[in-house]
Write a structure and sequence with these properties.
This protein is mainly α and 454 residues long. The protein contains 18 helices and no strands. Helix 1 crosses helix 8 and helix 10 packs across helix 17.
């Protein structure tokens, strides 16, 4: 299914069918978000905060911020129900340059760099599970990415079914950890009185650093919006899926971290790379640790599968609109954008092999703060330009106010990353500048197609 160009200048390349329902849309949001974050970051968060109270507050705050983002995204995605998500919103709001900039920056940083963070954690989990040398971790992560790309190349239905099964397994595993811990140790948390008595405020640098890691665990819960063109009854199914995935994530994350605090003090959590593995060792001994390491690896693989399934729609949409080589808009009979999958896999593997978990996370979070701020601002642009959304679209309650709050939060995160990781911030800015310069070159050699009507 390669498509052609019409006389009006619009491309029919990569025409998509509505093949997935609300359940798959929900599983995509859960599957993308539940990955390395909930296993890799609790120890980092505990080391930053040192307080059981503030650890729980941080995870609840992350859920509230994600709910706001879900509501804003629901309105945008039902206004413009085409493949590509944020890329589509930005083109409608700001024009070709901003959409080109976002689309390629997303492909490199959010899709490539974001999956690389998960792949790096997958490699670390595999090394811990099999007692392999740490130097093997990047190569194991790269091999996992290659395997996931191969599965998605088999077609949309195969990829969607795989990620649905993995997502349900991940949710069941996390709920199982929480229930086992509470049954075994009760509901009272192990506190550090000195840390809990310390004065920590949401504006403090420690809380900002912790919240950055919390948001990584929630990141991706809105990724089903990128597949709006392929979801049946998108007006009802997508908003429900976005909100439900956020609420379920918040419940699961708070439960799991509460269960960690039932078994370990924040200080003990802060000394652990994989808190869940150490917690399971307290429940069931070393075989419990091994079991949890295997579950961590499975969950990360499932997250890579979900993220790849949704994120590859951005380079596909870029190519369909003429902002990337036309080959990237080709889809197989099974509706798999194979060339775009191969490109995204190559970028991800490159990041995985050259940077470790924390370095890739810093690069990712700085770029994401800039890119998603522009997305949230587009809701304000549409409200001023067109007024309330049409009946066929979902209306976000207090939309402009929520969007403004999200923009302020992203600016807060970006400033923190720039201050604490200046070298990685510089890398991000250089790559972003190269992408911006690439627009002028592409205008000379490419054939940009006009955007479809709203």
């Amino acid at each position: 299914m390669t498509g052609s160009t019409t006389s009006a200048g619009e491309s029919t390349a990569g025409a998509l069918r509505r093949l997935i329902g609300g359940t798959t849309a929900l599983c995509i949001g859960l599957g993308v978000a539940i990955g390395s974050g909930v296993f890799r970051t609790p120890g980092i968060i505990a080391s930053e905060l040192g307080s059981a109270r503030w650890i729980v507050v941080a995870w609840i705050c992350g859920g509230a911020i994600t709910l706001a983002a879900s509501l804003v995204t629901a309105e945008l995605a039902t206004r413009f129900s085409r493949a590509g998500g944020e890329y589509v919103f930005l083109r409608a709001a700001y024009g070709d340059f901003v959409s080109f900039f976002f689309g390629w920056a997303y492909t490199v940083f959010i899709a490539g760099g974001g999956v690389a963070v998960i792949a790096a954690a997958s490699g670390e989990a595999a090394c811990e599970l099999f007692a392999a040398p740490d130097r093997w971790a990047p190569w194991i992560g790269a091999a996992i990415v290659a395997g996931v790309v191969a599965v998605h190349c088999a077609g949309l239905r195969t990829g969607a079914a795989t990620q649905n099964v993995l997502t349900l397994a991940k949710v069941a595993a996390l709920l199982g950890i929480g229930v086992l811990a509470i049954v075994r140790f009760g509901v009272g948390v192990k506190v550090n009185p000195a840390a809990d008595a310390a004065t920590l405020t949401p504006g403090g640098s420690m809380f900002i650093a912790a919240l950055l890691n919390v948001m990584w665990a929630y990141d991706g819960s809105t990724d089903s919006a990128k597949m709006a063109e392929e979801i049946t009854d998108v007006r009802r199914a997508l908003p429900r899926a976005l909100v439900a995935s956020c609420l379920l994530l918040t419940f699961v994350y708070v439960l799991v971290n509460w269960s960690f605090l039932v078994m370990m003090t924040p200080a003990e959590m802060g000394q652990s790379r994989f808190v869940a593995s150490d917690a399971m060792a307290r429940i069931a001994g070393e075989w419990g640790r091994a079991l949890l390491s295997g579950m961590t690896l499975l969950i990360c693989v499932g997250c890579i599968a979900s993220t790849t399934l949704a994120s590859v729609r951005v380079p596909f949409a870029l190519a369909r609109d003429g902002f990337a080589p036309a080959a990237l808009a080709r889809v197989s009979d099974g509706q798999a954008p194979i060339p775009a999958l191969l490109l995204m896999g190559a970028i991800t593997i490159a990041f995985t092999l050259v940077r470790d978990f924390r370095a890739v996370l810093s690069i990712y979070m700085f770029a994401a703060a800039i890119l998603f701020s522009m997305t949230y601002a587009s809701l304000i642009v549409f409200r001023r330009r067109f007024g309330a959304p049409p009946p066929a679209a979902f209306r976000c309650p207090a939309g402009p106010l929520l969007a403004a709050g999200l923009i302020a939060f992203e600016a807060w995160l970006a400033a923190h990353v720039a201050r604490t990781s200046p070298r990685d911030t510089l890398y991000s800015l250089v790559l972003l500048a190269v992408i911006a310069a690439g627009y002028a070159l592409w205008r000379r050699i490419g054939t940009v197609r006009r955007a479809p009507p709203n």
